[in-house]
Amino acid sequence: MMTYCVGLLLNEGMVLLSDTRTNAGLDNIATYRKMFHFEEPGERVITILTAGSLSVTQTTIARLREAIEDPEATSETSILSAPTMLKVADIVGNTLANVRREIDEKLSMSQGASATMIVAGQRRGGTMRMFLIYPEGNFIEATEDTPFLQIGEHKYGKPILDRVVKPTTSLADAQKAVLLSMDSTLRSNLSVGMPLDMALIRKDECRVGLLRRIEAGDEAFRAMSEAWSKALRDGFTQIVL
Predict the structure, then answer these.
(1) What is each CA distance from 65 to 34, 36, 94, 95, 225, in whole angstroms?
(2) CA dist., res. 95 & res. 77, Å (int)
(3) Alpha helices, DSSP H only, in the chain?
(4) Which of 192, 176, 173, 205 is nearest to 47 (CA)?
(5) CB < 8 Å & 24+ apart, contacts of 166-175
(6) Residues 67 and 80 sit within 8 Å (Cβ to Cβ)
(7) What is the pLDDT along the chain (241 residues), one digit of tens a residue?
(8) Contact status, residue 196 vs residue 112, Cβ threshold 8 Å
(9) Is the pTM of this model over 0.90?
(10) Which CATH number applies to 4-238?
């Protein structure tokens, strides 16, 4: 089961995009949401993107929600009580690693289940931060030098991000960039599929400012894809060796 998720960390805010395909067999195509939001509007917002084993990712998200709802939740256990985004990443990483180990033991397989996550968010008074969480629970952070993170089938959609995305990129251009990155992936890999989920979080608002579900056949997405293909063809023919 494959997927493609991408997150951009910019001066103006964050843009996140995920597909929803989890199985691309010829006669068994399934879709599941891979973008999850946790927020106290105006106080803090956390968005998690998931890729990999569905049993691992769904159980991890369920454990995180359970910890939030626990009457005895503390800053060490709940991502909505954590004092910093770094602590949020630590909680998510530990939960993911624990779930992965438990499922590996149950499966008793030589090659265990695996998953990765992107965790993005901000708390009031803090800075926007974005982390890529590995199956083992460790993580890396998006920086000014590398203002985007990808998980899943990322290689097809990376070139456009490398060329156009900078911290100063506007949120409008960022939405185009992630959608064109996804379009390239959709064209090259059948294990990634629509519908798509896109979210926008503006700096210091501490809430999800835009949620958009893009279904197969979406006219705006199709027009953008065709315009990009034409621009590439035109650019190609104009290059002289």
Answers:
(1) 15, 10, 14, 11, 37
(2) 9
(3) 54-69, 85-107, 158-164, 171-188, 219-238
(4) 205
(5) 167/9, 167/10, 167/11, 168/10, 168/11, 169/8, 169/10, 170/10, 170/12, 171/10, 171/12, 171/13, 171/15, 171/200, 171/202, 174/8, 174/10, 174/15, 175/15, 175/200
(6) no
(7) 578 999 999 999 999 999 987 664 545 556 789 999 999 999 999 999 999 988 899 999 999 999 999 999 999 999 999 999 999 999 999 999 999 988 887 766 546 678 999 999 999 999 999 999 999 999 999 999 999 999 998 899 999 999 999 999 999 999 999 999 999 999 888 778 889 999 999 999 999 999 999 998 999 999 999 999 999 999 999 998 8
(8) no
(9) yes
(10) 3.60.20.10
Q: How far is CA 178 from CA 16, 18, 156, 157, in A?
A: 8, 9, 12, 8
Residue 51 identity: A
By the 8 A CB rule, do 169 and 8 touch?
yes
Token code pair at residue 54: 């569905």
Angle, CA of 134, 136 and 138, to the nearest 5°: 60
β-strand partners of 179? none
What DSSP string describes 82-112? -SSHHHHHHHHHHHHHHHHHHHHHHHT-SS-
